[in-house]
C-alpha cells in the first residue's frame, strides 16, 4: 500500500465538518453546499484547538463550505495553508439530496434497505460508495506520501466520504464499510502507519489520541 513506502509513524486524521442546519433536520446533504451553523463554527474552533496540538504538517479539505470553513479554524492556529480538492466532497446522491431521513424511507425504502444490506446502490441515482473511494482515497494517499517521517495529515471532509476512504485504506471489502460507525459533527478518526499498511487507531474521537498500551499482548 502507498502509505508504507517511506518512513514509519505517519498519521492521517480524518475530520468531519461541524454542524449544519440540514444535519439538525436530518436532511441528506450529499454534494449540496450547506454552510455551518453558529454551533458548527464553535465546534470547529474547539476541535481545532485540540488538533493543533498534534502539530499537523498539512491540511487538505473538501471545497464545500461546511468543510472549508471547518478547516480554516485549524489553518488559523497552525498557520498552514489548506489545499482544497473537490475529490473530497460528500457522496453525490441525486434525488436523495435535500430530503429528510423519513422522506427517503417513504420514497426510496427498497433502495435504502438494499444500501444498508451492503449492496452497491446508486442512492438517488448518484455515486456508488466505491466510486467515492476511487476519487477520495488516492488524494489522501498522495498527500500522505508527501509527509515527513512521523508527520501528520489532517483531512477535512464529510461522514460518508471519510467512511469509504477509511474502508479503502484499511483494505476492507466494500460490503463491510457500513460496519464503520458514523462520525459525529467535528469528530475525527485517526489512521496510523503500521508494518502491514494503515491501521485504525481512533474512530469518532473528540479528544486527542492516546497511546495504546498492551496492544496484541
Automatic annotation (TrEMBL):
List, alphabetically, the Gene3D superfamilies matched.
Answer: Phosphoglycerate mutase-like
Query: Where in the sequence is the signal peptide annotated?
Result: none
Q: Which CDD domains match?
A: HP_PGM_like
Task: State where substrate binds.
Answer: 16-23, 66
Coiled-coil regions, chain positions? none
A Pfam family matched in the record: His_Phos_1
Please provide, in alphabetical order, the Gene Ontology terms of the cellular component aspect for this entry: cytoplasm
Q: Which Gene Ontology MF annotations are present?
A: phosphatase activity
Q: Which residues form the active site?
A: 17, 90
Protein name, entry field: Histidine phosphatase family protein
Q: Which organism is it from?
A: Streptomyces sioyaensis
Amino acid at each position: 500500500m502507498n502509505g508504507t513506502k517511506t518512513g514509519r509513524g505517519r498519521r492521517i486524521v480524518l475530520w468531519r465538518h461541524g454542524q449544519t442546519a440540514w444535519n439538525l433536520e436530518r436532511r441528506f446533504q450529499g454534494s449540496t453546499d450547506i454552510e455551518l451553523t453558529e454551533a458548527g463554527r464553535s465546534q470547529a474552533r474547539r476541535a481545532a484547538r485540540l488538533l493543533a496540538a498534534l502539530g499537523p504538517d498539512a491540511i487538505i479539505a473538501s471545497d464545500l463550505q461546511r468543510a472549508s470553513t471547518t478547516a480554516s479554524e485549524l489553518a488559523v492556529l497552525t498557520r498552514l495553508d489548506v489545499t482544497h480538492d473537490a475529490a473530497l466532497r460528500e457522496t453525490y446522491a441525486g434525488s436523495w439530496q435535500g430530503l429528510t431521513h423519513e422522506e427517503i424511507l417513504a420514497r426510496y425504502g427498497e433502495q435504502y434497505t438494499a444500501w444498508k444490506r451492503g449492496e452497491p446502490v446508486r442512492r438517488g441515482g448518484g455515486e456508488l460508495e466505491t466510486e467515492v473511494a476511487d476519487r477520495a482515497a488516492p488524494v489522501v494517499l498522495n498527500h500522505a506520501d508527501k509527509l515527513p517521517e512521523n508527520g501528520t495529515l489532517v483531512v477535512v471532509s464529510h461522514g460518508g466520504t471519510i467512511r469509504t476512504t477509511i474502508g479503502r485504506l484499511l483494505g476492507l471489502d466494500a460490503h463491510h464499510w457500513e460496519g464503520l460507525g458514523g462520525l459525529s459533527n467535528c469528530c475525527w478518526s485517526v489512521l496510523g502507519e503500521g508494518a502491514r499498511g494503515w491501521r485504525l487507531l481512533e474512530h469518532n474521537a473528540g479528544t486527542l489520541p492516546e497511546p495504546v498500551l498492551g496492544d496484541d499482548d
